[in-house]
Amino acid sequence: xxxxxxxxxxxxxxxxEDISMDLERxxxxxxxxxxxxxxxxxxxxxxxxxxxxxxxxxxxxxxxxDSSVKERVxxxxxxxxxxxxLSVWDNVYYVGKLKGVKGEVLKERIRSLLTGLGLWERRDSxxxxxxxxxxxxxxxxxxxxNDPELVILDEPTVGLDPESRxxxxxxxxxxxxxxxxxxLTTHYLDEAERLSDRVYFLNRKxxxxxxxxxxxxxxxxxxDVIDYTTGRTIRxxxxxxxxxxxxxxxxxxxxxxxxxxIYLEVLSDDQRS
Amino acid sequence: MTNVLDKFWQLLKMQFKMAKSYLPxxxxxxxxxxxxxxxxxxxxxxxxxxxxxxxxxxxxxxxINAVSGxxxxxxxxxxxxxxxxxxxxxxPKELYSFTIALSAGISTxxxxxxxxxxxxxxxxxxxxxxxxxxxxISAILSLFSSSMLGMFMGLAIRSQRAVNQYSNLVAFVLSxxxxxxxxxxxxxxxxxxxxxxxxTTYVSQALYYSLHGxxxxxxxxxxxxLTGMLFAIASSLVRR
Lengths: 273, 240
Ligand SMILES: Nc1ncnc2c1ncn2[C@@H]1O[C@H](COP(=O)(O)OP(=O)(O)O)[C@@H](O)[C@H]1O
Ligand SMILES: [Mg+2]
Description:
The structure holds two protein chains of two kinds.
Chain A: E1 2-10, E2 13-22, E3 28-32, H1 39-46, E4 54-58, E5 73-76, H2 88-98, H3 103-116, H4 132-144, E6 150-154, H5 162-177, E7 181-186, H6 189-195, E8 198-203, E9 205-210, H7 212-219, E10 222-227, E11 232-237, H8 241-246, E12 252-255, H9 259-272
Parallel strand pairs in A: 3-7, 3-8, 5-6, 6-7
Antiparallel strand pairs in A: 1-2, 1-4, 8-9, 10-11, 10-12
Helix pairs in contact in A: 2-3, 2-4
Chain B: H1 2-19, H2 23-30, H3 32-44, H4 50-79, H5 82-88, H6 93-123, H7 131-156, H8 160-176, H9 189-195, H10 199-211, H11 217-237
Helix pairs in contact in B: 1-6, 2-6, 3-4, 3-6, 4-6, 4-7, 4-8, 4-10, 6-7, 7-10, 7-11, 10-11
Bound molecules: adenosine-5'-diphosphate and magnesium ion.
C-alpha cells in the first residue's frame, strides 16, 4: 500500500495535508495522533470511502475505489458495530458472501476464524448479546473472512478492557507473522510502541516517522528518573543521571522517556512552528 | 452487473433475517392504526367520502411508517459505521441505502391491503376486482416515493436526533397539509399549486382512483414515480 501527497479537506477544515506513506507485507504500521488528527480521514481514503482532493493512493496495485481490490482487503472502520439482530455466524457469513467468498471455503473459514477467536461456542447467539470485547473480535472475524492480504483497523482497541486489548494485540501479531500487511490507527501510544514495526505521527500532516526505537533515539538524550520516596519524576540529561541517583536514599527508577512524552513534545513543537 | 445483483440479493436476505424477529409484532400492532382512523372518520365524515378515507389513511400510514422508518434506520446505520463497513466490503453506498430503504419499506406495504380490507368491512364499500392491478402499482410506487424521501432525510440530515425529529414531523405535515383525505381541487387557488409539491398528494390521488378501478390513477402514478426519483437523485447527491 502506498500513499503519495494526499490532501483532503472538509469545507474549511484541512484534515490531511500532503501525506505520503507506505506499508509492506508482513509489517504493522501505526498511524498515531490525537483525536481530530486526520487518521480516520486518511484511512477512509485508503479503503475507498472518500476520494483525496489531491494526491494518489495505490492499494495492492489498484485504485482504492476498484471494487475487486476490496476482496483482498479487510477493514474495521472506526466506531463500527456488527449487526445486532444477526447471529455471530451470519455476521461473518454475509460479509464473506459480499466479499465474494464461496460456499465450502467460506464455511470452513468461518469455522476456523470463530474457533481461533473463541467465538465458536457463541456462533448462534445474536451479536447483540456479546460483550464489547467479543463484538470487536467478531468485527475482526468479519474483516478477515476473505483472507485479506492487507488489514486496516481504525482504533481497534478503543474502549476494550486490558485483557481484550492484549488478545487483539496477540491476534495482530499472528496476522503479521502470517505475512499480512497491517495498518493500524491509534491514539494509544503504548499500543503503537508495542505492536508496530513503524510509526507515523500524524497531526494533520506527518510530523515524524520511523521505527519506535528510531524515533525514541532521535528525540531523546534525556532520561526520566522517578524517585519512589517522593513520587516525583525528574527529567535529566544522560550525563547527569548518576549524580542525581547517587543523592537518592530510597528506591528509584530510571527510564527513557516513553513514546508518549516524545509524542507530546513533537506535537507541541509542531504547533509552535 | 451479475455481481451487483448478487450483492443486492445477499443484502436483502440479510435485512430480512434481521427483520424476522420483530416484523410479525410490528404488523400486528400496525393494524390498530387504520382501525382507529377508519372508525374515527366514519363517525365524522359522510359516506360519500369513504374512498378518500381509505386512500388518505393508507397514504398517511405509508408515509408515517416508511419515511421515518427508513430515515431513522439509515441514520442509525451511519452512526454505527455500517456504511464504512459495507463500502470496505465492496458494496456501493447507493446500493446499501437502497436495499435498506426497500426492506424497511416492505413491512409497510404489508399493511396497505389490510387497510383496504378493513375499509371494505368498516365503511361498507366494495372494490372491483379490476382495481387490484392498479392498487398494486399505486401501492408499490407510493412505497418507492416514501422510502426515497426517508432515504434522503436519513442521509442528508447530520445527527440521528435531528433525523428522528424531522422524519416524524414530515409525515404528519405531508399528510395533513396536503389534499390526502379530499381532492386537490378543494384547495384554494394559490395553495393548490403548493400541494403539487407534496408527494402525498400524488400518492393519495393514485390510490383513490385505483380503489375505483379507474385508469385515471395512472397519471398520478407517474407523478408518484417522479417524486420518488427526485428524492433518489437528491440522496445520491448527498456527499459524506
Ligand atoms: N465527514 C466530515 N465532515 C466534516 N468534517 C470532518 C468529517 N470527518 C472528519 N472531519 C474533520 O476532520 C478532522 C479530522 O478528523 P478525523 O479524521 O476523524 O480524525 P481522527 O480519526 O484522527 O480522530 C477533524 O477536525 C474532523 O472534525
Ligand atoms: Mg478517528
